[in-house]
Design goal:
The chain is of the alpha/beta class and 125 residues long. The chain is 29% helix and 19% strand. The chain has a single domain, classed as Hypothetical Protein Ychn, Chain: A, CATH 3.40.1260.10. It contains four helices and five strands, in the order βαβαβαβαβ. A five-stranded parallel beta sheet has the order 4-3-2-1-5, sandwiched between helices. α1 links the parallel β1 and β2.
Length: 125
């Protein structure tokens, strides 16, 4: 049985918060099934790793839970948050303080390696 999941989030952005909760819900669900989970942030999604950004975003008009609440749930379950350095540079986030849940850097090659590894499965948002 496969127990490792790598999730790539690249189409998420602060401009489209209604799309941003799903990867964290799927990540939390996978950890409930005893999976090791990594979320790889690329493109505009790296903006969610900047302190204060995800806290102000809500996936629904009811504003019950922020995107950051969903991110914290996933991180509390052991999900690793990995960011692309190229995307950090493109969005002026290189060498900036990021949210405490950020686990470290991993770029395109790291995610591709996960997709090619038979022990891992992958999802893309």
């Amino acid at each position: 049985m496969i127990t490792k999941l790598a999730i790539l989030v690249w189409s998420l952005s602060p401009e489209r918060p209604e799309l941003a909760a799903a990867p964290f819900v799927y990540a939390a669900a996978a950890t409930a099934m005893d999976c090791e989970v990594e979320i790889h942030f690329a493109g505009t999604a790296v903006k969610l790793l900047e302190p204060g950004v995800a806290e102000k975003l809500y996936p629904s008009p009811g504003r019950e839970r922020s995107i950051y609440d969903f991110m914290q749930d996933a991180a509390a379950r052991g999900v690793k948050f990995l960011g692309c350095q190229m995307a950090f540079h493109a969005h002026d986030l290189a060498d900036r303080t990021l949210i405490p849940e950020y686990s470290g850097a991993a770029g395109a090659a790291a995610f591709v390696a996960r997709t090619l590894d038979p022990e891992w499965r992958s999802m893309i948002f």
